[in-house]
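**User:** My hope is that you can spare some time for a protein that puzzles me. As I understand it, each token names a local backbone shape. I would be glad if you read both lines and explained how they fit together. The protein I mean follows directly.
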Amino acid sequence: MPESPEVQALAEELDARLTGRSLVEVDVLEFRIAKTRARPPESLVGERMTGATRHGKLLDLAFGAAGHLVVSLGRHGWARWAVSDAAGEGATRADAVPQGADAPPALATLVFDDGARLELTDAGNWVSLGAWVVDDPAEVPAVAKLGPDPAAPDFSRAQFDGALVGRRKQVKAVLQEQESLAGIGNAYSDEILHEARVSPVVHAAALGPDELDRLFDATTGVVRGAIADRRGVPIDQLKAAKVAAMRVHGRAGESCPVCGGVVRDFSFASTTAQYCPTCQTAGEVMPLKST
């Protein structure tokens, strides 16, 4: 699932490349992605893009007074540049992702006046990609509910404490709860908790002052560090860059880079997460339920 560092890098590339360009064509191949049926993405054809930003894990393409195209990438969604049939100057083969049998299908294509073709893709067995055309991004429920963003320059310790202190909920769940802290998902919550040396299943209310200090520093440090590391990486390489940077997430069976112990899987909600028993749970190995 795309998380804030990768979506931030995506937004920055789209902002640099497409701001000032007019949208000349929209081809929606999967009608279910359009969440505002009265204002489909096609309603923005002819409008000039004025910028691209991020809200949590959602992408926001602004078209001035015409509105915003807000895209939820869901679990498996992403974006890629495609080569136009006319090989326009804005869509060169150097930009393109090879369209092999394993390439995820494009559910919508946005074509701009310089020939650039942006494809929105979804690789899952069910459609998780969603798109809204709205006057204000806050009209999108997933944006309206967002809590403070640890990547924001003004993110404060008070906001962090407000999200966690006293919560009788597992700390990993709180980190991933978008209403509490925006932009963090399964992968970066694993990385944050490992960096902070905190068990993922301890209740936030049970964290002591030292643990809260470490967790605050890890939350801001991991998220902001990942954004800095992803900045400038081509969008077709961002997912691979994320995977390569993980220290424990997705590393079950490998050695912990801190203590040398074995990184383990554990069952969390409807998915699998990773942790280091030595660094995080005083050696306790948590159960992994079979699926």
